[in-house]
User: What shape does this take?
Amino acid sequence: MPGDPIPALLPRNGGHQFLLYGNSCSGVPGALHEKTFASVNAVVRRLNPQPEFILFPGDEIIGLSPDSTLLRAQWRYWFETEMAWLDRAATPGTRRATTPLTIR
Assistant: This one.
């Protein structure tokens, strides 16, 4: 069944349970990668228990533009729509510190 919990892999002797995402290249409404990323997120939401934290080493958004307004819009859409399901207080995440833009 699509909504059934998926047992998460847990550390045997201490350690941390985490999730590593990579290269979603999303952030654009209606684009091909949005559907793929939504499918991955649907599986992640079913993990039981949820990860303690999430690592996202890069390519969260597609980028491909020198236009800072367009890039900010992609980041905003990625955070506010595509990752809106994530309870950031319960499951913190990381992203590249080299991203030159901030969402305002």
Notes: The chain is about 30% helix and 10% strand. The CA atoms of residues 41 and 74 lie 17 Å apart.
